[in-house]
Amino acid sequence: MKKLKAIMVVGLSLTSTALADEFKEKAKKIQSLYRTGVLAMNAGKGDEAKTAFEAVLKLSPNHGHARHQLKQIPTVNARVALQKRKALFKATKIEKIHFADATLAEALEALNELTLEASEKKFAPNFVIQDPTEKLKERKVTLKMNNVPVSAALNYILDGVGATARVDLHATLIRPSAK
Fold it and tell me: Of the candidates 31, 58, 83, which is a domain's last residue?
């Protein structure tokens, strides 16, 4: 009987040790996956982050931090897309610009077309003029430049007419300056 008790104690001890080791390994795996997801989010890699956080939730369905991070992915994706769009304004170069006494609307339409051409139809600034008081309507633009980034051309145009731009995800909003 003593032998049987001793065998049972040893068996239970080994079982509980194995379960504890398994629990520790699972916790390490969860922590590693979560860290991978956070790093992916910080790098703007929403799809990788989503995969990592979903894997965390498969192992630990009540993991609140992973659930929260999953909800943040659309915001991160939008921020990354906006940063890429803004970078295209600097990276896309217009070979030749020549406007003479063009209205702001005409200049922006031409710049939009030149940008489409320069980017092989991969990037369009999509200018939207928001000018309810029509302060900008009659202002004229004269600009002659070669090999200039779209961002620089836009700045020169807007400075000349007293306007500002805000780049959004799908359009570039043009408004009169507050000055």
Answer: 83
Task: Give yes or no: residues 59 and 13 share one domain.
Answer: yes
Residues 6 or more apart whose Cβ sits within 8 Å of residue 26: 59
Report the distance separating Cα 94 and Cα 105, nearest Å.
Answer: 18
Give the DSSP letter string of 12-62.
HHHHHHHHHHHHHHHHHHHHHHHHHHHHHHHTT-HHHHHHHHHHHHHH-TT
56 within 8 A of 34, measured Cβ to Cβ: yes
Q: Which of 148, 44, 145 is nearest to 90 (CA)?
A: 148
143, 98 in Cβ contact below 8 A? yes
Domain total of the chain: 2
Q: What is the pTM of this model?
A: 0.73
Please tell me whether residue 75 adopts helix, strand or coil conformation: helix
By residue range, what is the domain housing residue 151? 92-176
Q: What is the pLDDT of residues 1-46, one digit of tens each?
A: 666 565 655 555 656 565 566 778 888 888 998 899 999 998 889 9
Sign of CA dihedral 81, 85, 86, 87: positive
C-alpha distances (whole Å) from 17 to each of 5, 9, 99 are 18, 12, 79
Which of 34, 59, 83 terminates a domain? The answer is 83
Q: Are strands 140-149 and 172-176 parallel, antiparallel or unpaired?
A: unpaired
